[in-house]
Fold this protein.
Amino acid sequence: MVRRSIFDQIFKEMRRIRYRLDDIERSFSGWNPLPLEIPKSELLSLPDHIRKTYMTVASRGECNATEVSNATGRCRALESSYLNQLARMGWLMKRRDSKAIHFRPISPTHTDCYIKGAKLER
């Protein structure tokens, strides 16, 4: 009897977690971020090869190194290096999804914490 009640408790908790995840998923499903407005002078401060990578990510919203390499025609390892450089410089954000790492432009809500890759003290 004790085992059955423990399994029931675990099952109920898993169901609650699933419902909360469904709510979170529903709230993000309609999320459409506004396009970033970056001054041309800042964009031109990037080297050409990195700017091409950034423009590809900015036009697609969020993608991984394979998707960027397919769009630019360069090898995946090179694009991965460029994407990581852009993330370190503060132009992109990284998100891990199991094995894949996805990159996206930093949204305006995150730019108050970063200035050209340098983290500000709060």
